[in-house]
Fold these 2 entries.
Entry 1:
Amino acid sequence: MEIITEDIKNEILQRIGEKRYNHTLRVMKTAVELARNFGIDEEKAQIAGYLHDCAKIKNKEELLKEAEIYNLNLTEDMKRAPQIIHGYLGAKIANKRYHIDDIEILSAIESHTTGKDNMSDLDKIIFLADYIEPMRNFDGVEEARKLSKINLDEAMLFSLNNTIEFLCSKDEYIALDTIKARNYILEILK
Ligand SMILES: [Fe+2]
Ligand SMILES: [Fe+2]
């Protein structure tokens, strides 16, 4: 992964903190395993996994400041669910600051939190790696891990359903991209 220099590593570590940085390393490793298992480009999975949370800035004001610097257009969904901003912003930072111009990698970073319509296999792998990395611990994670070994679409449907059910149970807003992702996977599995 020569693209990622020591300077970039230190910068990301500074931006997102050690805890989140260690999570990105676990996501990267999980993403590479999934890619290997399903015959998908392992280097792309590695880079996307490594960078997926590069914009996960805890402080909301700072996050919004960065969004403005990188010309990220804040959609209604992003305003209503600010926790989804870091995916879209992460793709901008990966592209403009870290010179990643592979649209598949950028798409996977962008859609890792919400999912989206027409997800590629790489998009699914990064979404799932983020969902099931070894330190994740929530109701359903074991089932998501099991399905991720067998079928990406089945694993996606389970994970999206689980996420949507969780958000419903908390009366929380659901991003439209998440609904679109779920409907898209449902269509594939028919
Ligand atoms: Fe994230
Ligand atoms: Fe993450």
Note: Residues 23, 27, 52-53, 130 surround fe (ii) ion (ligand 2) (CB under 6 Å).
Entry 2:
Amino acid sequence: MQKHDQEFIKKKNRTTVFEMIKNNSPLSRADIARLTGMSPTTVSRIVSELYNLDYMHEIEQETIGVGRKAVFLQVNPKSVLSVGVEIDKLSIRIGVIDLDGRVIGSRMIERQKNEASDVTLEHIASGINGLIEEKDFDRRRIVGIGVGLPGIIDHSGGKAVLSAQLGWKQTDIAGVLKKHTGLEVAVDNELKVKSLAEHMYGSAKGSSRSVLIGFGSGVGSSLIIDGEIYRGESNSAGEIGHTVVDPNGILCECGKVGCLQTYIAEASLIEQSNKIKPIASLDELFEARREGEFWASSIIDRAMTFVAVTISNIACMYNPDTVILTGKLVERFPEVREFIAEKCMGQFVWEPLRGTFQIVYSAFENDGVVIGSGLLAQSRFLDIGSQMEQVEQV
Ligand SMILES: [Zn+2]
């Protein structure tokens, strides 16, 4: 056999064993041989290599019925890392994520309103490099960077096609970050990566058809079918904020009239409030409602009605098993949750669909985009065979 064929098979076998343990742990060496069809000797050798390079833990467990202890293998979640980044209008979150989707180091950076993309991306790159250095993470174990941001994203090209919130157009995010960090970079819409985090480790774990709906500075959604993000023709499936709900309604920032988000998005609610009383934030609006001010109740009740309408429309369109609600409106003001549930199940959701899905809330809240972005990078770039070769070269 040629040398490069041997190298290829070695890499492939290491990857097979690692993936097998990662997805089915705990497993014994005998289980792995049986499941992969490899010889016990080969399995033993690969497991020792993985163990010596710190990819595995051994745990002792009683085997059922036999009554004696056996040794099982489990992946060390900190043996493979990735970086997750969330770019928002006024802030950036950076986190180092392990294989279990846990944030094991993080950093926040401020962003100026309308800051140019190259300035923001340089800040992100130095933030990432700084975090890796500060916490002394092993760069060889970092598979890459995932970035989540609002807007329409070319996920295969790593570009922001259009992000109205950030003021970015055709921005090459992956290219610039790779240049400054030396790491591979995957980019996607923030709600798409957030739904990935909820699907893998959060509120929608075990679901086969889930929809995540975000109510914040805009309104958007992401659909996961059988573990895959549904992207549509131009990766813009789920942009429900610009579905028209009233052709005679209010002008939207997109230039159309009566878009859904003109009734729910934060800026719209504040703008409407200002017709009655000068307020600067949602906190003040909710405060006014708590004090029994009628106008504040009207604005919030109408917004919650549109939230319920959105959930019921989505249930009709996709027939999901789980609807995850996320975003400032439902996370910072949990008093709205009961109202939404009542409106949905008492009024808007079509009767045959009631009871076919559960409404849940994000398990990760503010960390969701960072975790999902990190998991996106792991799913895109993890090549355990190649990483082991690098780690071996000490
Ligand atoms: Zn619009």
Note: The first helix runs from residue 3 to 24.
